[in-house]
Design goal:
Bound molecules: adenosine-5'-diphosphate, magnesium ion
Number of helices: 11
CATH architecture: 3-Layer(aba) Sandwich
Strand order of the largest sheet: 6-7-8-3-9-10
CATH class: Alpha Beta
Number of domains: 1
Largest sheet: 6 strands, mixed
Mean pLDDT: 87
Helix content: 25-40%
Radius of gyration: 23 Å
Order of helices and strands: HEEEHEEHEHHHHEHEHEEHH
Number of strands: 10
Distance between the termini: 76 Å
Oligomer: single chain
Length: about 290
């Protein structure tokens, strides 16, 4: 190769690199595909979303419970999901957590973790915590023991035999007790807590596992107004440190906590925006009132 050609090649390379740096594709530019350091097991948030569902569908006996659902959530976001009964809200959470496998579509945690390649326990280990509708605390154990157990079970059975809280974990447990308003009830038997307190304890058990994303299905159902308000404060305090997806029917609660509200209907997104925006949407009004 002559020095001339070498020089031209060098100039072409420089030109390509300059173009790549400028190209503003949604994937972050061509440069994003090369040489980007990514630590295995660490969540890749470079594309600004922690959860990404694309064109997801699932049928049960020919009935499409989820039908072309696409949705994404930003890191630290508190997203509210509303929608009539049977809209597919719980099924969506089943898909994200690996309980139900979709027939088609993509589900990603960060940019690189394909959740459809993982089973339920693996997805929990990856940092997605789920709170079901009914509280499932161990009633015969104390508040403290329930929180401690949450950490043990997350670490796996073998580790749990020799498990002791280290000082960082003890500190976290104490901080979480405050967050969930149960610092005064730490030795109380969980079966003696009110319904709302049991729900908070279960959220505390999830927090012990330090999830990056929390999925909460109708968390304030059955709570008193006072408990509902304290739960709103709790969720607002979690926002930013964790990403949250909250399914709820209680519109006062939604109004209190929401930034963006997604309306699900017939297994897909019907509308999205602020609560005021979606409530003013004719299609949303129709599905809530017109059926
Ligand atoms: P939502 O939580 O929004 O009320 P679901 O996700 O529970 O709605 O249910 C959506 C639809 O899918 C409903 O019609 C429900 O009956 C149906 N469905 C959910 N899970 C199953 C299942 N495992 N088998 C059959 N049908 C199901
Ligand atoms: Mg449901």
């Amino acid at each position: 190769m002559t020095p001339d050609l070498l020089e031209q090649g060098h100039a072409r390379l420089a030109q390509h690199q300059a173009q790549a740096a400028q190209s503003q594709t949604v994937s972050g530019g061509r440069s994003a595909g090369y040489g980007r350091l990514h630590t295995p097991g660490e969540l890749d948030l470079t594309h600004g979303r922690i959860l990404y569902l694309d064109d997801v569908s699932v049928s049960f006996d020919g009935f499409k419970a989820i039908n072309g659902l696409s949705l994404d959530i930003a890191p630290g976001e508190l997203r509210c999901i509303i929608g009539p009964n049977g809209a597919g809200k719980t099924t969506m959470m089943d898909i994200i957590t690996g309980k139900t496998r979709p027939d088609s579509g993509q589900v990603f945690f960060g940019s690189t973790i394909d959740l459809l390649r993982h089973n339920e326990p693996e997805i929990a280990q990856l940092g997605i915590g789920r709170k079901f509708q009914k509280p499932t605390v161990f009633e015969h154990l104390s508040v403290f023991e329930n929180l401690e157990l949450a950490l043990k079970t997350h670490k796996g059975v073998a580790a749990s035999m020799f498990f002791r809280l280290d000082s960082a974990q003890s500190d976290r447990l104490a901080a979480i007790l405050h967050t969930i308003h149960l610092a005064d009830a730490v030795r109380r038997q969980s079966g003696l807590l009110s319904h709302g307190q049991k729900q908070w304890l279960e959220i505390g058990m999830l927090l012990m596992q330090d999830p990056k994303l929390l999925l909460l299905d109708e968390p304030v159902a059955g709570m008193t107004d006072f408990e509902t308000e304290r739960t709103a404060e709790l969720f607002l305090s979690l926002k930013g440190q964790h990403s949250l997806m909250v399914v709820e029917h209680d519109m006062h609660f939604i109004e209190r906590i929401s930034d963006i509200v997604t309306v699900l209907c017939d297994g897909a997104v019907l509308a999205q925006g602020t609560l005021a925006q979606v409530q003013a949407d004719e299609r949303v009004i129709e599905v809530y009132l017109g059926r």
